[in-house]
Amino acid sequence: MLTPTPISADPAAGHGPFETARLAAAQLTEALGRNDHRLAVWLGSGWQRAVDRLGVTATVSTADLAGFHRSGAMGHGSDVHSVRIETPDGIGVQALVFTGRTHLYEGLGPAAVAHGVRTAAAAGCRVVVLTNAAGCMREGWGVGRPALVTDQLNLTGASPLTGPLPPPPNDSRHVDLTDAYHPRLRDLARNAAPDLPEGVYAGFHGPEFETPAEIVAARRLGADLVGQSMVLETIAARQVGLEVLGISLITNAAAGLGGKLSAQEVVDVAHAAAPELAVLLADVLAALAAHHDLWQDPPS
Ligand code: HPA
């Protein structure tokens, strides 16, 4: 049985981001009928059909949860599914699967971008898997292929950590991002999908695509992939102690390295790759779920 969470936060009354996240987590737990979610997954463009291969047990619309905004981005939904990831020993892990996200370019600010991740943490999640569509700066990586994210360049000019602090023990602003994308999660993903290329993701503010000069600059700074999501979510996740796995679907050569860019091309490539991505994500989630160390309670 669920233990009711006392709710005192009311976003309409101007409560802070962590109180709003706690309220949303309580609403989520009640709507989905369980409080044992340990893994949260965000489905970016192209990744939506992955839901079809996962065992959805309940669904809620983010419209019914405090602090969420309807995603205005192409190729995104607005549901949160509760999903059972089975493991060979029958223990299994319960996951939250978000079909939409808020992008910084929607103009709602970094706290709105971070809200989903903070809600997942408040709901008891330990690990987040962030998927997205990205442009590629590396020849030979191949449009339509997924890639693992090893690290990021936050080129948005924003941080989600400038506002109020989270409750203890995570009440620190100066978050260590050394392992922003955790190597142990990447190892597990690599076991499930050995041939994926790996690289650094540069997150731009958007919504306009980058100029060729910006891509040359990002490449010189060490980026391999470019997109307009994920970097603030990853920072917010690390602040509240979540481990992050990032996977990008390469939908195009970055600006100046191929043809002209269009959002429709991104959606079309993502659509074509969807069946393969669904298999990949199911395999990766199964590999994470089977790694029991990720789900143990920390020693008290
Ligand atoms: N740039 C930014 N975001 C993107 C791209 C890109 O080339 N492709 C898919 N999302």
Descriptive report:
- The chain is of the alpha/beta class and 300 residues long.
- The protein has a single domain (13-291), classed as Nucleoside phosphorylase domain (Rossmann fold, 3-Layer(aba) Sandwich).
- The protein is built from 6 helices and 9 strands.
- The protein has a 5-stranded mixed beta barrel.
- Helix 1 crosses helix 2 (110-122) and helix 3 packs across helix 6 (263-289).
- The protein starts with 16 loop residues before the first helix and ends in an 11-residue tail after the last helix.
- Residues 1-12 have low confidence and may be disordered.
- The chain binds hypoxanthine.
- Hypoxanthine binds at residues 133-135, 209-210, 226-228, 251-252, 254, 261, 266.
- Pfam families: PNP_UDP_1 (PF01048).
- Pathway: Purine metabolism; purine nucleoside salvage.
